[in-house]
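quick one if you have a minute, typing this from the bus. theres a chain ive been looking at and ive put its sequence and its fold in token form underneath. please have a look and point out which stretches look like helix strand or loop to you. anything you notice is useful, everything is just below.

***
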Amino acid sequence: MNKRGYTLIEIICTIAIIIISLSVINLDLNLFKKDILDSTIETIITDMQEAKMLAINSRINEVKVFFTLDEYQHDFNGYEIYIGGQNGKVLKKRRLNKDYIISRVKSTIPENGIVIFKPDGNISPHACTISVYDKNTNKFRNITLTIGYTRIMEVK
């Protein structure tokens, strides 16, 4: 007698293998997205530290960071760094990954979107927070620029 079909145990094992495989793939995707967010935060910190050091090393020129608005004019989607103002030399233009924005509501970046690093190591305004929003997880990560010799770091 020829038997056709699958046993209940074979079906359960197949479903279990599929579920385990999908959970491993999902875990890998979440870790990859976390790496991109960590990289984005690190890039912003590095760029702000570089702007600060350029201002200090120039001894006469301010370095200005102009945060650029997204297409809806609600939040910032990147920034441009200039030495000597917006008519000065462009040092860097950076756009964030489409999954991230710099929140205008949570950040304390001035309304005009400009942060100035001064040759004496200070910042104008005296302190501010750059709040990066992850659209996938609905979470914020904050970077602070503080008064004094301008410490730049992520606050967890």
About this structure: DSSP finds one helix and nine strands in the chain. The chain has a mean pLDDT of 84. The chain has one domain: 8-155. The CA atoms of residues 58 and 99 lie 35 Å apart.
